[in-house]
Amino acid sequence: MTEDLRTAALESKAWPYEEARKLLKRYPNGKSGDPVLFETGYGPSGLPHIGTFNEVLRTTMVRNAFHALSDTPTRLIAFSDDMDGLRKVPDNVPNGDMLREHLGKPLTQIPDPFGTHSSFAAHNNAILREFLDRYGFDYEFASSTKYYTSGRFDEALKGVLRHFQGIQDVMLPTLRAERRATYSPVLPISPTSGIVLQVPIEVIDAEAGLIAFEDEGQQITQSVLGGKAKLQWKVDWAMRWVALGVDYEMAGKDLIDSVTQSSKIARVLGGRPPEGFNYEMFLDENGEKISKSRGNGLSLEQWLTYGPEESLAFYAYREPKKAKSLHMGVIPRAVDEYWQFRGNYAGQDLKQKLGNPVHHIHDGKLPTGELPVTFGLLLNLVGVMGDASKEQVWGYLANYVPDASAEKYPELDRLIGYALAYSRDFVAPTLKRRAPEGVEVAALERLDAELVALPAEASAEDIQNIVYEIGKTGGFENLRDWFKALYETLLGSEQGPRMGSFIALYGVENSRKLIAEALAR
Hints:
It is built from 24 helices and twelve strands. It has helices spanning 3-11, 15-26, 50-69, 96-100, 120-134, 144-149, 154-162, 164-171, 177-182, 233-244, 256-268, 300-306, 309-317, 331-345, 350-354, 357-361, 375-385, 390-397, 410-427, 439-452, 460-473, 479-491, 499-506, 508-520; strands spanning 36-42, 74-80, 140-143, 186-188, 202-205, 210-215, 218-223, 229-231, 251-252, 278-279, 282-283, 324-325. It has a three-stranded parallel β-sheet with strand order 1-2-3.
């Protein structure tokens, strides 16, 4: 760690450094003995989505930023609330009728509707861990069920019973009258049905962990220890912070109230709430919040079918406190913007580098390699090529990129695969080339004639100058109308690339064929 880097990081306005500085303030003399503990939470009541993954990603960025500021060791726990009772059947999983028979039971006690794991929770936990491992995150997975049943939370549960009334004093004023009448911070597991019960309880002996409650008409006295009870969500969160010594945890904006109440409960329990911030939610293309149970929005697998991991990390990094739509249309732009920032990185001073998203995506260790064409240009190319192979795309790239090969540009080779998939599934079905109209006809004829006269060594910039001049002098009200006409008549879309680059890439003769086809319409 160089002093220059540490000094610059202390002054950087990049949000991971701003968050990391909260931990420096929390422990001005360092945290004695134990590592600084970061935590993320996940409820496996439905399939994990990008929002879950991004919380781990963003927390890791803050953790890396803290490493730039302090030599204090850290840990990251990815905690699964898999002892929660299943409240409703998700829309996007099979065997819903089977799941309905197990409503109310802990997620780890419900059969896997996919038939591949020991429980519904185990299935969803495995998917989450696969996602996290694919990115190479340094984390420890923690299961709520294992922590409760192993006795790891027993002492903290006794603390909840000791401070039962203080917790009630925090929670009851926040509840409606009907809910207030039956609310209990402690949820016993029914010894008969195995359901997580939402019933009032009486503390019999806090030190022994004993409570009393009614279950199916019978008065039951039962221990809360060893997995025989769990806590209500906000109380559970606070207990976990105190029991594990969590120092940092961020949460979605929809949990602001939960953070407030859990922080109060943590103080009642004698602990200190963690640092953190509330990020804005991802929205689907209709502007609605993404939900695990509904399965709306993009899945992680979908994004990674059409764009590389770093493009998703780039999208997650930008403006975490601003709501963002998450749909297929954002992927190409994220890919190109990632490469734009990556291309700028080498020429930036240290302050600029620390504010560059790619610094946080790669923790300052950027991979080598360059991208000679944009992803957007690739999409336009494969869009006009139709059903093409990677080898055919590389053949066209030879028109534009000296020594074009997968060996020289391995990351471009990866992007060709994504472009082919994206174009096949989302671009090709929408393409519809129209016939030119009015002044567009003469302008296209003139462009064809200019292309015929081009010398063999003409560059993309030379072609762009020709396109630009035709637009200025071809009778269009503005250049935008000319470029729009080119996109709609030659490419079949409302938007498109820099035409000089496209023609150079696609080849002059192939581009002339597009013009001929347009004029023939």
